[in-house]
Write a structure and sequence with these properties.
The chain contains eleven helices and eight strands. With 282 residues, the protein is α/β, with parallel strands linked by helices. Strand 6 and strand 7 form a beta hairpin. Bound molecules: nicotinamide-adenine-dinucleotide (NAD).
């Protein structure tokens, strides 16, 4: 099957980046969020980002207009009915993702492939919420999606070889490097990276080092562009907590146990950049 028309569900931090990636690659994109007015505002962020590139002479103004012209804000799930591929990027909550996939299964044409941008939840659980388990897989973009090169595909035991081959080939048309991971908690990237991020929170919590000492050390010693606490702020503390909880539930390994400090900060609404306050203030 040829993938031409794309749908994105959820237009938050990751969803906006994914919409931009899809449209920049020349695809028509329909994006559906919780309410069209809010989604329109998120799409305006894409235009702002692109305008910045035009101002710096890195993008032609006509190209920016063409990218924006391929993006349409839909009113509801029905507007995704005839998409060849729909990628969900709604919050990291398995029950919510299962519910939307079940609804999409009813609405979309039988050939539509479903992707989940989950950072590490069970894609198999999402697949069984539909009657098209062979066409459901993880499509994990990394933050920020327009910049990060990796597209981590996740194959469940139900995903067909044909779906994987189609999506692998399509992924390269986005200009991404594609890897295929099995459906184990956290796949490759989140499974490896999460203990490092949680370790930094634990180190801060235990008073072993200050926020700045931790972040500066990792930037200077390992050449990371951001320190781990900056990264958690960037990801969103609520998202990081959900990731840790699901990995801990699956593996029961201590390294994935969410630190109390992370939990308390989420309860206090300090979610990082998205709320203006996390380990840092914005
Ligand atoms: N934040 C990261 O760094 C990162 C990186 C890779 C993957 N992810 C994954 O991407 C997904 C989205 O994360 P995010 O950081 O963009 O979260 P976010 O909270 O910024 O965005 C989620 C968006 O989904 C919308 N939404 C909620 N319910 C919806 C529904 N039923 N229909 C349509 N829209 C709905 C919300 O209004 C919000 O705009 C999660 O699964 C997360 O684990 C996040």
């Amino acid at each position: 099957m040829e993938i031409r028309k794309l749908g994105v569900l959820g237009c938050g931090l990751m969803g906006t980046g994914i919409v931009q990636v899809f449209s920049q690659a020349g695809y028509e994109v329909v994006v559906v969020g919780t309410a069209p007015e809010r989604t329109q505002k998120s799409v305006a962020q894409i235009e702002k980002r692109l305008r910045g590139r035009v101002d710096k002479g890195k993008l032609a103004a006509e190209e920016k207009d063409a990218i924006m012209g391929r993006i349409r804000v839909g009113a509801g799930l029905e507007d995704l009915a005839d998409c060849d591929l729909v990628e969900e990027s709604i919050p990291e909550d398995l029950e919510l993702k299962k519910r939307v996939f079940s609804e999409l299964d009813r609405i979309c044409k039988p050939e539509t492939i479903f992707g989940s941008n989950t950072s590490g939840l069970s894609v198999t659980d999402m697949a069984v919420a539909t009657k098209r388990g062979d066409k459901v897989m993880g499509m994990h973009f990394h933050n920020p999606a327009p910049v990060m090169q990796l597209l981590e595909l996740v194959k469940t035991i139900m995903t067909s070889g044909e779906t994987i081959d189609t999506v692998k080939a399509w992924g390269t048309t986005l200009g991404k490097t594609v890897v295929v991971a099995p459906d184990v908690g956290g796949f490759i990237v989140t499974r490896l990276f999460t203990p490092f991020l949680l370790g930094a929170v634990r180190m801060l919590e235990a008073g072993i080092a200050t926020r700045d000492e931790i972040d500066i050390s990792m930037k200077m010693a390992v050449n990371h562009p951001m320190g781990p606490l900056e990264v958690v702020d960037f990801i969103g503390l609520d998202t990081e907590l959900s990731i840790a909880e699901s990995l801990y539930e699956e593996t029961k390994e201590e390294k994935y146990a969410p630190p109390l400090l992370l939990r308390k900060m989420v309860t206090a609404g300090r979610l990082g950049r998205k709320t203006g306050k996390g380990f840092y203030e914005y």
